[in-house]
Amino acid sequence: MMKFDWDYMWVMIMSVIMGFLTALKLYDTEEKHDKGKFVRRLIIATIGSMFLTFLFYEIALYFGLPNSLSVMLGGGAGFLGSDTLSRIAIKWLENKFNAK
């Protein structure tokens, strides 16, 4: 029978929570009259938050940190870095497709 890896389950839960918190943070700071831009930014920030959470979790594990500390560091990096990542991605997409 296949064993379930609970370590990655905690990282997945943390990444979803960080994505949700990023969405709440964006909702307070974003102009609400432009729904298309807000939805785009929300999707990119949530995906970016989840990506950064998993990335920093794996980096922390690589350097031999305990699992619980790795999950916490990944979540913190996912929450703090996703806004920066979403701004860079939005700017790149707007330049690529000449949209404003």
Helices and strands in order:
Blueprint: H1 6-29, H2 35-62, H3 67-97
What does the model show?
- With 100 residues, the chain is an all-alpha fold.
- The protein has one domain (6-97).
- Helices cover 83% and strands 0% of the residues.
- It has helices spanning 6-29, 35-62, 67-97.
- Helix 1 (6-29) packs antiparallel against helix 2 (35-62) and helix 1 (6-29) packs across helix 3 (67-97).
- The radius of gyration is 16 Å and the shape is elongated.
- The mean pLDDT is 79.
How is this structure best summarized?
This protein has helices at 6-29, 35-62, 67-97. The protein has 3 helices and no strands.
Helix content: over 70%
Task: Describe the sheet with the most strands.
Answer: none
Estimate what percentage of residues fall within beta strands: under 5%
Number of separate strands: 0
Radius of gyration: 16 Å
Helix and strand succession? HHH
Structure annotation, total helices: 3
The poorly predicted ranges are none
By helix and strand content, what is the structural category?
mainly alpha
For the terminal residues, how far apart are their CA atoms? Answer: 53 Å
Mean pLDDT across residues: 79
Q: How many domains make up the 3D coordinates? A: 1
Shape: elongated
Q: Key features?
A:
single chain; 100 residues; mainly alpha
